[in-house]
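Researcher: Please predict.
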Amino acid sequence: QVQLVESGGGLVQAGGSLRLSCAASGSIFSNYAMGWFRQAPGKQRDLVAVITSGGSTNYKDSVKGRFTVSRDNAKNTVYLQMNSLKPEDTAVYYCAAIRRGVPVDWGQGTQVTVSS
């Protein structure tokens, strides 16, 4: 089991940037793929970005070219750099540890609000 704590959310104007961090503990972080998900009010939770244990990445189409996921296994931390933010990016962002393609552990979430 992995314990996850997100940080870095906040209020930003459209066009601005934020960097989210997710600190992991409790298991061998480097063994897991890690994902960033988001959930807007009244909507389902969607995968935004994923990074495998080997460092391969994949993104939701609407964030490609604007968001970058990375990981530092020495610090047991995964990051989501978000640039050119849009109001539609407003959501609670969650990180998750993924095993065999399934999210198995979740953080508590961090709110990102983008004003127009």
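Model: The chain has a mean pLDDT of 95.
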